[in-house]
Design goal:
The chain is an all-beta fold and about 350 residues long. The chain contains 1 helix and 25 strands. The protein has a domain of about 120 residues. The strands form 5 sheets. It has an 8-stranded mixed sheet. The chain binds calcium ion.
Length: about 350
């Protein structure tokens, strides 16, 4: 059942054109689903939502609010390592005809976690692995990366963590600590290197690519990703600089931790899910400043925009949060922008 208007809050946007007018956005948050288990990624076919869960299920949420947990048949058992499991999940552009999706998951080989990217076929309410697109990315105790996203022209991108071996992010022969993209010939090419544990990726309306990543201790980053560039880890972090390496557009600094995960552009602003930060960071991309935080839901794992509304999932049930009876939840936020003219 849908629960309406659980939370209302006001966002006051700065930078108004005159002192006598205030642009006010009133937002209403509505709960669309409850009792998700360590949800990781939000996908939609335009009418239904599909949410991946780390323990290897996909939850389908119908327009009428009906929630169905669906089986996923993978060719390997999921790893039990921390942060591992069924992670990134995105529907292919032609999903409504093909029933095909991409997934990123972690399994164990010889006792160690390994990441792979596969295609899943959807039929009769179940998902079955059909092809392995990328395999053998040895990971570590933590830092598996795992976000998948389609670029505006439909190309698959993936974020891969350093597997808790920092120097691997600088090793051009390994895919650890890289952002990669699927090419026409079926192989993956490296887009950028020097990432620690990137878990968010999004394109602006102008087609610029942004990514979020977890810093070592604070120093979380939002980067603008340019093909072929090196984003520094572990040589530099936060606002440190070195020739030939890119500094982040925005960092949490050395005293604050966001633990950023999924991200999306929505109505010109950049929204970033924050785990430890227990918020959705609302960032003005022109000034690269946090202009608001949406809080009160605990840890946030992913955000999604359909162009009209913003959607998000919490992440309070994976052992690192304080889950309520209804956690984890799937929510939508509707915004109404008003201009208030003061006398
Ligand atoms: Ca960096």
């Amino acid at each position: 059942m849908k629960r309406f208007a659980l939370f209302m809050f006001l966002i006051f946007l700065a930078g108004c054109s005159s002192n006598s007018e205030t642009i006010t956005t009133t937002s209403v948050t509505e709960r669309l689903a409850s009792n998700l288990e360590s949800p990781w990624s939000i996908a939609s076919d335009g009418t239904r939502f599909f949410i991946s869960e780390r323990n290897g299920a996909i939850v389908r949420i119908e327009e009428d609010g009906q929630t169905i947990r669906e089986e996923v048949h993978l060719s390997e058992r999921l790893s039990n390592a921390a942060e591992a499991g069924l992670l990134g999940f995105v529907l292919q552009d032609d999903f409504n005809e093909s029933g095909l999706a991409y997934a990123y998951y972690t399994y164990d080989a010889n006792g160690s976690p390994v990441n792979r990217i596969v295609t899943l076929k959807y039929a009769d309410g179940e998902w079955t692995e059909t092809d392995i697109l990328l395999d053998g990315i040895e990971s570590g105790r933590v830092h598996h990366g795992g976000r998948l996203a389609l670029s505006p022209d439909g190309v698959l991108f993936a974020t891969i963590g350093d597997g808790a071996v920092p120097e691997n992010a600088q090793n051009p022969d390994l895919l650890n600590g890289k952002i990669v993209m699927l090419q026409d010939d079926g192989t993956f090419s490296v887009v950028s290197m020097g990432h620690r544990n990137p878990q968010g990726i999004a394109w602006s309306a102008e087609g610029e690519l942004y990514s979020s990543e977890h810093g070592p201790s604070a120093n979380d980053e939002i980067n603008k990703i340019v093909q072929g560039e090196n984003y520094g880890w572990p040589v530099i972090e936060g606002n440190e600089s070195k020739e030939g390496m890119q500094r982040p557009l925005l960092t949490s600094g050395s005293n604050e931790t966001w633990a950023p995960s999924g991200m999306t552009f929505h109505k010109g602003l950049l929204y970033v899910a924050a785990l430890r930060g227990k918020a959705i960071l609302v960032i003005d991309p022109e000034r690269m400043e946090i202009i608001d935080k949406i809080e009160g839901f605990g840890r946030i794992r992913d955000v999604y925009s359909d162009g009209e509304s913003l959607f998000f999932i919490t992440n309070n049930t994976d052992g690192r949060g304080n889950p309520s009876e209804l956690d984890d939840g799937f929510f939508t936020i509707q915004s109404e922008k008003m201009v208030i003219i003061k006398e």
